[in-house]
């Protein structure tokens, strides 16, 4: 007994491959989409390193500007997010906790302001380099 679906798969090699688990290559981003995702990667600094990491690993093969700028944003936000998380943990220590609370807030404000400045520049189509940045992700 044959079904219409099976006949289509046998007669259409491209269709058969599609149903066997292979996936097509991702489509490249248009120039405006490329700039948009690069901008979002920088604006995501308000949430730490996670937005830039997701954008870098998902879209780096689809747009050169997004790859470049999301990597820059990831390299900037990753170490600062780690330090901010450590400072947040140290807020639980009696006596010195208040000092680390101020440090954690200062890091978050610095990440946010730097990300907004970078996002505005990137949205204008200009590459942005943070003045202090560890290049951990190559």
Q: What would you say this structure looks like, in words?
A:
It contains six helices and no strands. It starts with a helix and ends in a 15-residue tail after the last helix.
Layout of SSEs?
Elements: H1 4-11, H2 13-19, H3 31-43, H4 50-59, H5 64-90, H6 97-123
Helix pairs in contact: 1-2, 3-4, 3-5, 3-6, 4-5, 5-6
For the structure shown, list the relevant keywords.
mainly alpha; 138 residues
Gyration radius, in Å: 22 Å
Structure classification: mainly alpha
Q: Work out the helicity level.
A: 55-70%
> Major sheet: size, sense and barrel closure?
none
Total DSSP E strands:
0
Mean pLDDT: 86
Outline, from the CA principal axes? elongated
Alpha plus pi helix count: 6
Order of helix and strand elements from N to C terminus: HHHHHH
Alpha-carbon distance between the two ends = 55 Å
- pLDDT < 50 stretches: none
Question: Nutshell version of this structure?
Answer:
With about 140 residues, the protein is mainly alpha-helical.
């Amino acid at each position: 007994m044959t079904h219409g679906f099976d006949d289509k798969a046998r007669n259409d090699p491209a269709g058969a491959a599609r149903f066997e688990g292979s996936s097509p290559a991702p489509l490249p981003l248009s120039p405006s989409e490329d700039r948009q995702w690069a901008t979002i990667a920088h604006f995501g600094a308000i949430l730490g390193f996670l937005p830039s990491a997701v954008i870098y690993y998902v879209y780096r093969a689809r747009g050169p500007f997004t790859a470049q700028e999301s990597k820059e944003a990831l390299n900037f936000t990753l170490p600062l997010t780690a330090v901010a998380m450590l400072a947040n943990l140290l807020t639980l220590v009696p006596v010195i906790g208040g000092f680390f609370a101020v440090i954690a807030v200062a890091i978050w404000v610095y990440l946010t302001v730097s990300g907004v400045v970078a996002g505005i520049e990137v949205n204008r189509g200009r590459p942005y380099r943070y003045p202090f940045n560890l290049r951990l992700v190559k």
